[in-house]
Every structure is written in C-alpha cells, then in structure tokens.
Amino acid sequence: MLEGKKIAIGVTGGIACYKVVTLVSRLVQAGAEVRVVMSEAATKLVSPLLFKEISGAPVAYDMWRGNDEFNVEHVALGRWCDLMVVAPATANIIGKMAGGIADDLLSTTLMACDKPKIICPAMNTNMLNNPAVVRNLETLRRDGILIMPSGAGYLACGINGAGRLPEPEDIKAYLDDFFAKRDGDLRGRRILVTAGGTREAIDPVRFIGNRSSGKMGYAIACDAARRGADVILVSGPTALAAPRNVTLIPVESTQEMLDACLTVYDSVDAVIKAAAVADYRPHEKAAQKIKKNEESLTIDLDKNPDILKLLGEKKTHQFLVGFAAETQNLIANAAAKVQKKHLDMIVANDVTAPGAGFSTDTNIVKLLFPDGSIKEPGLMSKEDVGNLILDIVRDQTAEK
Ligand code: PMT
C-alpha cells in the first residue's frame, strides 16, 4: 500500500524522535517517497543530515533558508504529499495545530496542507493527561485529524506509563491501513468471515470439537483488511493472534456463532464461512465433570442449526461464500451444498489431501459456482486462496 505514496513527516522535539529515523527508513524501503520537515527543537536532538541520508531527500527545517527543491516551501510540501504525519507529536505542536498557530516551517506547512494528517502523540504521561492536551486532541479529532494512540511502557522521564511513541513498525502498519482504507480494492465493503472450529460442551471440562486451526479464515480476514475492507471475524477458539484492523467476535458454540453472524448479517456485503462448524451438540451439558464409572458412555446428540443454510434463506443482497470440507466425492458433495444453502460460491477442499485442509499453511481448493462452472487453482498458500476468493467478492460487490 505504501509503494509510490508521497509522505511528508513532521518531526518535533520529543525524545522519541530518534525512532522516526527507523520509521523513515522502513517507509522508504516499502517504496514510499518521504520528505522530512523538522521543528527547530527536533534538530537539536537528531541531525537533519541523518534524515536527509535516510530519506534520500533534502530536509526542511528553516523558514528562512530555502530548500532548492520546493518553491514557497511550506505550501509546496503540503501540495506535494498524499499524507502528512507528525511523529512524535509533542504537546507543543498539538497545541499549535489545535489553536491555529503557524510560527515555524513545520506548523505553517501543517496549516497550508489540505491533505489527510495523522499525528502520533508522544510525551510524559502527566502531559498527555493534562486537560489542555486532552482538549486540544479532541479539537484535532473534530477537525478530522487522525490520532494514532500512543503506547504505554518505559518513558524517557524514567516512569512507566502512557505516552510512548509507538514502534516504527506499528506506525508503518497504521499508515499502511490508512492507505488500504483509502485506496484498497475492497474499500467500502463490509465482509463477515468465520474461522476456527466450534466447540460443544459435554461437561464443564470436555467438548466435541474438530481439527480447525483457524488459519484459513484468519488468512482471509487479514487479506480483506489489508485490501481495505471493513472486516468482522467471528471465530471459534484458536491459538492465533487477533488480526490487526479486524473486528473480532470470539465465540465457542455453533449457537453463539449463529447469533454473532445474525447480529451483523444485514450490514455486510459478503460472507465467507471458512469455519468448521459442529453439526451436533450433546443433548444435555452435564453440570459436573462426568466420572469414569461405567465401561461405556453414551452421549445423545441434537442437530445444530446450519448457520450457512439459514443465512442463505435470509439472503437479500449478500454475496455468500461457503466452504466444503470433504473426504470423498469432493465436487458432487460441494455442488449439492451450493444448491441446498443458496450459495453464490463454494470453496471445496479435500481435507485428506497432503497440503490441504486442517492446520496446514497451504490449501488445494476448487471454486464451484451455481451455474456449474469450476475453477481449479491448485496448491496455494492460504493467503493466496484468500486473495483469490476476495478477487471474486470484489467483482461481485459494489463499493458503498
Ligand atoms: O482452520 P484451518 O485449520 O485452516 O482449516 C481450514 C478448513 C479445513 C476448516 C476450511 O478450509 C474448511 O473447509 N472450512 C469448512 C469446514 C466445514 O464445516 O465444512 P462443511 O462441509 O461441514 O460445511 C459446509 C459449509 O457450511 C461451511 O462453510 C460451514 O462453515 C457451514 N456450516 C456447516 C455446518 C453448520 N451447522 N453450519 C454451517 O454454517
């Protein structure tokens, strides 16, 4: 997302400004064009020469000493960039921006710039909590400036608390997300993804489950968010970390997954149901741990609701994608599910094939459509499978 983007970085005189050298380097490595504007205080902490070498471009910091690259520098920089970022943003620059003060090159550039702006506040915890700073940040938020939340941890003043400048990788990821929402090919789409396996409780310590790791669904959710979609991930228990920029709704049972899906169903443009859902649940959950007194144990099972079938019946505008986990008759079984569940597409995987199905990093899928057509892309990473599905979702849904 950062490739070819023009980013102006305003650096102010917070101790954390040394981290911005790494940020600039990461952005340049990602293909962005970066121009640095420094406050006078920042130049006392980090040499402009260092930023010049890392960004590969002249650094602006002196109102009165022109930079050959730009004519009327404070206006030209704002016109040149796609995005302006202030990192670290001290209480001082936040106050100036909120109060409309333009008394040096950075603050005048910020005022003249009509492009989106992101600030990364970083300061001592008491300063961050000071009512004036809280008020100024609120003003900036209302003015449409994006404020990246500061981190918590060890601060230069020797205490642990809120106010740390986020790590360069995290700021880079935040900028990536910004451009994904603005330019990604799934922007303006809201997509519901389900992942992982549901669990049906037998007693307080045991459950009926399956081998789903969640990797397939999480890969789709990550891909979709990276491409600018608004993603809701309803997930059974997994060992995976919550994906960035995705609304995660953790569930355990099939009924909980159904309830979560129904809550958001009307608002989504597409559903991708990669979750492995338990088809049956114990008729009764034992209140206490079942003791092993008998030679055999019989557990009566009741049929669970078929979530996807219910969504298919309620479908109005949603593009509905199911998965089919099969161990035999892959095409015939998957095709029957397309009809029975009113799907727009099914992703069939033979879960006994090496490199496919549960817990693997790869999958071998066949995409089946209601008109009987089939796509067979072969062995791919789960990420690539996700992107392939999402290409189709993009073409079948409209940006809102
Ligand atoms: O999580 P991983 O380890 O990465 O593994 C990926 C996967 C094998 C789980 C995934 O690729 C996959 O195949 N997911 C679907 C598993 C499944 O439940 O298949 P099914 O054929 O039983 O169900 C068909 C479809 O109906 C699925 O979209 C399923 O989510 C849905 N379903 C099934 C039963 C039910 N009661 N409600 C449902 O919504």
UniProtKB/TrEMBL annotation:
- Record's keyword annotation contains Magnesium: yes
A GO-annotated cellular component: phosphopantothenoylcysteine decarboxylase complex
- UniProt keyword Transmembrane, yes or no: no
User: Catalytic residues?
Assistant: 157 (proton donor)
Please list the cofactors this protein needs: Mg(2+); FMN
Pfam families linked: DFP, Flavoprotein
Q: Which InterPro entries match?
A: CoaB-like_sf, CoaBC, DNA/pantothenate-metab_flavo_C, Flavin_trans-like, Flavoprotein
- As recorded in UniProt, its EC number(s) are 4.1.1.36, 6.3.2.5
Any idea which UniProt keywords this protein has? Decarboxylase, Flavoprotein, FMN, Ligase, Lyase, Magnesium, Metal-binding, Multifunctional enzyme
* Function statement: Catalyzes two steps in the biosynthesis of coenzyme A. In the first step cysteine is conjugated to 4'-phosphopantothenate to form 4-phosphopantothenoylcysteine, in the latter compound is decarboxylated to form 4'-phosphopantotheine. Catalyzes two sequential steps in the biosynthesis of coenzyme A. In the first step cysteine is conjugated to 4'-phosphopantothenate to form 4-phosphopantothenoylcysteine. In the second step the latter compound is decarboxylated to form 4'-phosphopantotheine.
- Name the NCBIfam families on file: coaBC_dfp
**What protein is this chain from?**
Coenzyme A biosynthesis bifunctional protein CoaBC
Which organism's genome codes for this protein? Acidaminococcus intestini (strain RyC-MR95)
Q: What's the source species' lineage?
A: Bacteria, Bacillati, Bacillota, Negativicutes, Acidaminococcales
Originating gene: coaBC
